[in-house]
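User: Run a structure prediction on this.
Assistant: Running it now.
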Amino acid sequence: AIHEALEQLARESPQQSEIVKLRYFVGLEHAEIAEALGISEATVRRHWAYARSWLYAELKSSLMR
């Protein structure tokens, strides 16, 4: 389910998907992600918060089906 949710997020927002992968799977900190992607740390934090809540809602929804 997580794989499918990440693929859907990647279609809708590739940058947010990349942030999730770098944060969750690689273990980078916000500042490291910002540097790697060439964006501000504030943007990383915003995108991370959105993607995290989006994934939670998507996974919860898929479990209810």
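The chain has a mean pLDDT of 95.
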